[in-house]
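Recall that a protein's primary structure is simply its ordered list of amino acids. Everything else, from secondary elements to tertiary packing, is in principle encoded there. The following example makes that idea concrete.
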Amino acid sequence: RVCAEMASAPSVTLAVLAFAVVLAVTPAHAFYLPGVAPQDFAPDDLVNFKVNSLTSDKTALPLGYYSLPFCQPPRIVSSAENLGEVLRGDRIFNSLYQAQTGLDENCKVVCRVTGLTKAQTTTLHGAISDEYRVNMILDNLPAAVRNDFVDEETGVSKSTYERGFPIGFKTAASGTSDTSKPSSLFKAKKRRTRSKDSDKGGSFFVNNHLRFTVLVHSDFGTAKMSRIVGFEVAPLSVHHAYGTWNDVDPALKSCTERNHPSVTIDAESRKTTERDENTIPPQQVTVGTEIVFTYDIVFKESPIKWASRWDVYL
């Protein structure tokens, strides 16, 4: 093993040196690496989401996205695009999530996972207990949960961003206080750190519905073209209901315009308001459970320019 590590060391060193040389010889105003240059999207262009390793502040051990019972494409392909991703050790792969630029869609079904095994249930319980977060990527931007709040001193509304979103949440066993609650759609609640005793008993729930908000900027001189400048996600747990399952065109009773799990949609104005999450039955994780994974896509015009799109993460 030592020999193998020694053998791989020169290649890593050369990669770092090459990166340093590029930085040294390239003018700052023209510098970019493959995969991080601006990409222009035309209306209805297909945009594919990628998935990265699952991470947790409670443990330094990352988990592969597909080590959990999530929806998998027929062929899983490594999708690292630039040197930075390689040097960080990211494990980026393709996924079944996708969107068409400028097209808002609700209740898109990703897949149906039938009959969780005992091993899969145990894995999900462990990941939820350890507060792992799912990391997704769109046009090289990581998905982030936006936390809105009002500054007590100035009264000004502000927002912060957390990379990734929780796999799920856990409620405490009967007779004890709650240790974790689902985040609201637009204001993620902080979770308290659990002790080992609090991990015993209780119920586990998975965030199987995602509402993505993609911010786009189109004021850069190219007609009808836009650039992605923000990637927000709002996770939600919902126990989906349906009549007879149809793989080609699944019709969910629990995810329609009149009964949407995330928002209430006004029929005339098309405006949306956040739905009370307490009115939505969550998706529990137990042996034999069936989980239907769904998502929404909303595109919003933004004044943020492409060069400044990383500012919210800093």
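The radius of gyration is 21 Å. The mean pLDDT is 80.
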